[in-house]
Amino acid sequence: MKFGFFDDNEKEYVITTPKTPLPWINYLGCDNFFSLYSNTCGGYTFYKDAKLLRLTRYRYNNIPTDTGGKYFYINDNGTIWNPGWQPTKTELDSYECRHGLGYSRITSSKNKLKACVTAFVPLEDNCEINQVLLTNDSTDTKTFSLFSYVEFCLWNAVDDMTNFQRNLSIGEVEVDGSEIYHKTEYRERRNHYAIFAANQKADGFDTSRDAFLGAYNATDDPAVVNSKCSANSIASGWSPIGSHHFNITLKPGESKSLIFVLGYIENKEEDKWESLNIINKKPAKAMLSRYSSDEQVTVALNNLKDHWNQLLSKYVVSCKDDKLCRMVNIWNQYQCIVTFNMSRSASYYESGTGRGMGFRDSCQDLLGFVHLIPDRARERIIDIASTQFEDGSAYHQYQPLTKKGNLDIGSGFNDDPLWLIACVSAYIRETGDLSILGETVPFDNDESKTASLLEHLRRSFDYTLTHLGPHKLPLIGRADWNDCLNLNCFSKEPGESFQTTGPSEGPIAESVFIAGMFVKYGKEYATICHELNDFEEEVRALAAVESMNKAVLESGWDGQWFLRAYDANSNKVGSHECTEGKIFIEPQGFCVLAGIGVEEGLAKKALDSVKEHLDTKYGIMLLQPAYSKYYLNLGEISSYPPGYKENAGIFCHNNPWVSIAESVIGRGDRAFEIYQKTCPAYLEDISEIHRTEPYVYSQMIAGADAVFHGEAKNSWLTGTAAWTFVNVSQYILGIQPDYKGLVINPCVPSGFGDFTITREFRNAIYYISIKNEHNTQKGISKLIVDDKEMFSNLIPFEKGKTTYYVTAIME
């Protein structure tokens, strides 16, 4: 069942009913100022940090769902409704929500009055614009009222939800015409405030939530809207809001536009006023002047569209599969950028109050956006590396505003160090910029302890190398990629830290998955050393990689698939010897994509076992059989009900690893089959089952053991976006950035046909035509670049050259 459709020409998803299975959202903002915006106008806004600088409130896990947002109420002769349906839920005569790239537009009508709300964050200012266009489609003159409404958050979202003894006394506002200033805490800090303003003179206003709603009323039945008369209230202490009231009369066919701006102002030191409670309005008024007319708003929106069109032009595929094209060309890359901006901090599943930026998460996210914004990727790498410790380990998370490590989470996730090598390698292969390796980067953001980025990579590499267990496999620490696989749990006393040193007496858990990572990214570290002519370090790295490869084959192979790990007592995890959890997805994908077992014929066995034991029609499950009870030696993974999350759920994040692995051994049919199963565009027809947005990836889908098999959760902010784009762009379509140029190495399904790709790479445009007359799944027989036949499938990069015309023939 569909709830909308793709409009590929406009790069929009069009939702045709407000009653979607879950809120279907969009992200507004490109740099520092962001809004989450749902198909019923729900969501919230923040500046840089969703915890510390939140402008508007949102109540998670609320009843009814998705209440709280930027609402516009219309009282048309006693009929009260909202253009986005919520919160009044008045039945609408028509409804449409168009989620585009960085903007959303909701158009609806009731009793022949049409309302169109266009919301976006402009490129140049820290504000959200809501343009409201009202049109009288009747044959009679209409007189009605329009009320705006936002509920201000008192900046720190956690404190706002908990510290009521203080917060119910600090709300403070100021009204200047149609400008409502939220200046709570301005007395204390005098450096920032929020503003909610309209571009025309209002007939009334409210800043007190109690006055606007009325005693014991909710947002679906506000007293002021019912009475069609604002209270002109000034909030003092109690919960502050922003609301404007307009009395409007429209003749038949007449339209009226109103522009509302919700903005954040941060005063420069010299702009602070001496008085503790009088704000400096000049910066706000200057910003408002830039969006005071429809013409200005149109220009700003077109600039935003041009920005996204330019970004997405860097990788464009044309083939006969429309679903593949729309995901590769539009939605997958768009989601990669959003995930870069947010990491995992603020979605409809992460409240924005805890996680911050993840070390592992941000490193992986970079794989999907580095080709789009390499300069910002460079900045992100330095931020990430700065949280690393001197021994090569790292904080698992850091706060986006302060760039400081999250002390509550700490470190001990032993896969983290290797992801730094992964993202730096991806950046250099994309840009050719080896100079980043010489950047001076602090440890733990302590400027007294610094080293080159290359030294940070060496310590990442050596951290794994010096933390090996009895099988010469890497220690897992608190966990590896699977945060819920806590194999050292029962060996710890309460309050005791995790094993972080090398082998010693006592139980130590080991990870085959990290071993696969070490082989993959150890090779990439060796290549970086080679590019720097540090051949001694290259030889050392490759020797260590070979030793790890040998350890996996000797101690990590279970007969038909790779083991997952050894627990703290050296018992096998993910083995045919186990009663439950016999096989896991992670090592099958990552070991094979790292090349382990390919020459020995083990890779095919492992991937065949994945298909036999883990495959479903909705994707590959994380493990099987599911754990039916809690296992102390495994930890949180066995605490979930069977089929959900890490306990045999379908993690869309690591399905691409298996698809990539299939492409490594040349099975294009299977690689593409795996790609399709979790790709949202191919799931649009079953949205009543899948439930999350059909235009972006979700983190997980309920597995075969779950009650609601096929139901997705945790959409938008997931490493699925980056890894899927790496999979489809570099391995299925086969355009792989390399230190010396672009490698053409597709692995496609039978019948895929010819296809073309336009790829921007190091300031040059590559026009690539791939011919597949014989339905070959993998293999380039001839590569012609600018009428010259190459001797390999590498297109050497030539500095200063701006265009390449490429023909690749598959046989």
Automatic annotation (TrEMBL):
Q: GO annotations under biological process?
A: carbohydrate metabolic process
Glycosyl hydrolase 94 catalytic domain ranges (all copies): 307-734
Ranges where the Glycosyl hydrolase 94 supersandwich domain occurs: 11-277
Extract one GO molecular function annotation from the record.
carbohydrate binding
Keywords linked to the UniProt accession: Glycosyltransferase, Transferase
Alphabetized CDD domains for the sequence: GH94N_CBP_like (cd11754)
Q: Enumerate the InterPro entries for this protein.
A: 6-hairpin_glycosidase_sf, 6hp_glycosidase-like_sf, Gal_mutarotase_sf_dom, GH65_N, GH94_catalytic, GH94_Enzymes, GH94N_CBP, Glyco_hydrolase_94_b-supersand
Among Gene3D superfamilies, the record links this protein to: 1.50.10.10, Glycoside hydrolase, family 65, N-terminal domain, Maltose phosphorylase, domain 3, mpn423 like domain
Descriptive protein name: Cellobiose phosphorylase
